[in-house]
Amino acid sequence: MSGRLPRSASLALLLPALALIGGAHFLRAEIGEYRQPGETLTPPNPTLVAVLALGDRTLAADLVWIDAVQYFGGTEGSKYRYALLSAMLNTVIEFDPAFRYAYKFGGMALTTTLDGVEAADALLELGHQRFADDWVFLAYIGFNAMLYREDYLRAAEFFGRAAKYPDAPAYVEMLATRLAVEAGDCKRSLHLIDALLQIRQDKLLRQRLLDRRDYVIWECNFQLIEEAAKLFAERNGRPARALDELVAAGLLAGGVPPHPYGGRYLIDGNGKVASDPPRKRLRLKLNQQAVEQLKRW
Length: 297
Fold this sequence. Notes:
By secondary structure, the chain is mainly α. The chain has a domain at 11-96. Helix content is 64%, strand content 3%. A hairpin with a 5-residue loop joins β1 (264-267) and β2. α10 runs antiparallel to α11 and α11 packs antiparallel against α12 (203-236).
């Protein structure tokens, strides 16, 4: 018996391959690789793609996906700030809504395009609706809010939601609490920690959260005293020389807040607030390595 496939089976295998090759060539022409200068760029037509894919929706999604990746990595797209990428990725998920990585890729790549963060977040929201068990979509929205919108409160909200997933890394919750503090919402940060303490069973993770809670309280108290010192100087034309002056002026309701580490807060003759023992401020300072780590999710 011959090992050669029947002609019908060979054709069944060959036709999708030809469709993939021919479709990719056609789509590259559609998005501008072979267009003349001045011609209008248009996204691939889903109806034509479906015909090229012989009615196979998964193959149709693959055709547009391959072209989208080439378009994003090529020089043609960069000339127009990748104006077609959003439409291309939405076509991919229209053909194959279960293509999880297409949502994630769009959530990062679209931030650099003409459509911007709004298009990226819209795709991530769709991904979250489709894959509600995946914390990464929420974290990506938080990342975009932090890095591109500089909206730390929104970022804290989405990182906080992501942190509640059992498989989310511990640093996600740490970042969420730091962002809330950076946004000036200490209550949100503490509420998030308390909520996570309700669901975390691991002793090490719980201790880490309790340590973070003390750190947040320390930072929030520090900010409160700094703000009081600033108001005192504005009202009196000179810096406060002692914390008691801030209390006497009614700028620290309830008195000087307690130090969570058993130390004390101080203020020098120039109105500068300090802590004894000293501690590094809980501020958001992302280095490039941290940014790259976030982008690898």
